[in-house]
Amino acid sequence: MGNSFHSSRLYGFFCELRRRKVWRVAAGCPDMTQTLAEVYALVGEQEKAIDLLDGLLSRPSPVAVAILKCIPIWNPLRDNPRFIEQLKKYGGPA
Asked: Mean pLDDT over residues 4-31, rounded?
């Protein structure tokens, strides 16, 4: 029950927050948004993860291109053309 089990449970937790509309309160919190992007990346929802990252990179947040390039949690996105474009857009060469 490795990483995917915990990722799917966390993903389920976020879905439940959304259902209860708690997400609207947390949506403005960059840390929560980053965590959700990480979960999306881990469970294979690459486009959703990239959409959230685009929002985080376009405003002050704890997410930076240097972090996206070196932290292993983002490995599932490394070959995605949209992810590569974001790295270039917000931080120079991917």
From this structure: 63
